[in-house]
Design a protein that fits this description.
Largest sheet: 8 strands, parallel
Number of helices: 11
Bound molecules: beta-L-fucopyranose
Helix content: 10-25%
Oligomer: single chain
Radius of gyration: 23 Å
Length: 457
């Protein structure tokens, strides 16, 4: 590729833009998963599919409590496992007997999805749904008729419970009673969601709207691009195909690579898509509630937050309800503590600039910004620099450095450096109190950086 072609290629990559629903999702930043069902009673992580519906009786179910607890940590939604791999449905589905209508819960008249959707609406947060494609109960599993069954259930969920913020497709796939693996008709599933819930983002390992970060440990990548090769997010929309060369299978990147979407990878891709990463992890070791487990420490949760929300991803943190339908008091306490810590660290900015303009320009892709710190900031040196690109125009910054400045003189050593920025990058700085401002130098970008906000905490 000639230099001119490469420049144009990078410009194109920098201008792959998110849809309105992807932008809204990125701004949601932090929300909860709730793994709930027959496993909450049996203590299994993967149910067998032959559980008796009679064991499900969360007589103390209190979804308002769930909503209050997740809000106390600053979360903006809850994604419920309406059906996990065991096939037991938490709503009274017309299409199966393996659901709440045959349980003692609210005398067979209960509907967890409805109770949660009403509680989320009351609490002003969003509701998302997980509907496991893998179903160990359905006799149809492993045949074409299973896709009809799945679509009928998906339609029930998409049409009866108001606005859905996210639909979560689990990639897990086992064998049916006929010994065959189900071929999931994702195109059809996606079409149903788009028809009834056009604002819902769809999570799947390979897109279309958001993708799996590649691990369940709450570990984000230092270099996380929301613009990735189409081969990695096969279900994403390709807005341009400039630079097509080789179409390797890049799915191995999911788990192993320190970077996703960097130049090496996009150069050899057939086309690029906007598909940001979601980090899903649990507040405890398991996805379902096990009384013997303890919630992770505050330090761990803080690390996960910085690695996800602070690394150009969203955080989906699982809080598993107990068999009786309540959150574990230990989790409620940890969430409160976590919310208080986030408020302490990020609640009150020392300084903030909206849509900052560069103070120096070396080239159209190398610029620097300045943020002044107020003199009367007590002994707060400014510990966190939070950088946000205006990703309506795409993701552009490839590397940056932050310097302390005193009396107009930049300190020779940077206090922090990083690669991508994207929706949000939270960087920790040294605690040198003498500085009176920070200089943020964009050392490389695919096209002129467009910053939305710089904040110091
Ligand atoms: C995995 C599932 O197998 C786990 O049980 C859990 O639901 C997790 C979020 O996704 O693929």
């Amino acid at each position: 590729m000639s230099e001119m072609n490469l420049k144009q290629f990078l410009k194109n990559a920098a201008n792959v833009r998110p849809s309105a629903r992807q932008l809204a999702w990125f701004d949601r930043e932090f929300y909860a998963f709730a793994h709930f069902g027959v496993n909450s009673v049996t203590g299994r992580e993967w149910g067998l599919g032959n559980e008796d519906p009679a064991i499900f009786n969360p007589s103390e179910l209190d979804c308002d409590e769930w909503v209050e607890a997740v809000k106390s940590a600053g979360m903006r939604g809850i994604i419920l496992t309406a059906k996990h791999h065991d096939g037991f449905c938490l709503w009274p589905s017309k299409y199966t007997e393996h659901c709440v209508k045959n349980s003692p819960f609210r005398n067979g008249k209960g509907d967890v999805v409805k109770e949660l959707s009403e509680a989320c609406a009351r609490g002003g947060i969003g509701m998302g749904l997980y509907l496991s494609p893998w179903d160990r109960n359905s006799k149809l599993y492993g045949t074409d008729a299973y896709n009809d069954y799945y679509c009928a259930q998906l339609t029930e969920l998409m049409t009866n419970y108001g606005e859905i913020m996210e639909v979560w497709f689990d990639g897990a796939c086992g064998e049916g009673p006929n010994g065959k693996k189900q071929v999931y008709d994702f195109d059809r599933y996606i079409e149903i969601i788009r028809r009834y819930q056009p604002n819902a983002v769809i999570f799947n390992d390979f897109g279309p709207d958001i993708r799996w970060c590649g691990n369940e440990a709450g570990r984000g990548r230092p270099e996380e691009w929301a613009v990735v090769p189409h081969e990695l997010c096969k279900r994403g929309t390709v807005p341009q195909t400039e630079g097509a060369m080789l179409a390797g299978d890049l799915s191995y990147l999911i788990n192993s690579d320190e970077a996703v979407g960097n130049l090496n990878q996009i150069l050899y891709s057939k086309g690029l898509v906007f598909c940001g990463s979601e980090i899903d992890t649990s507040i405890r070791d398991g996805w379902f509630h096990h009384p013997e487990e303890e919630p992770h420490s505050l330090e761990h949760l803080m690390k996960v937050y910085l690695n996800s929300v602070g690394h150009n991803s969203c955080l989906n943190l699982n809080i598993p309800p107990m068999a009786n339908g309540r959150f574990d008091p230990r989790d409620i306490a940890r969430l409160k503590e976590f919310g208080a810590e986030l408020k302490k660290q990020f609640g009150e900015p020392i300084a903030t600039v909206e849509f900052p303009q560069p103070v120096k320009t070396l080239s159209d892709t190398q610029t620097s910004y300045r943020i002044e710190l107020p003199k009367d900031r007590g002994n707060k040196p400014g510990k966190w620099i939070c950088l946000e690109e205006d990703i309506r125009f795409g993701q552009r910054v490839d590397s940056f450095c932050v310097y302390s400045v005193k009396d107009g003189v930049r300190m020779p050593h940077s206090c922090t450096c990083g690669r991508t920025i994207g929706h949000k990058q939270i960087c920790e700085c040294d605690d040198w109190e003498e500085r009176d401002s920070f200089e943020i130098v964009i050392t490389a970008a695919r096209d002129a950086a467009q910053m939305k906000r710089i904040t110091v905490y």
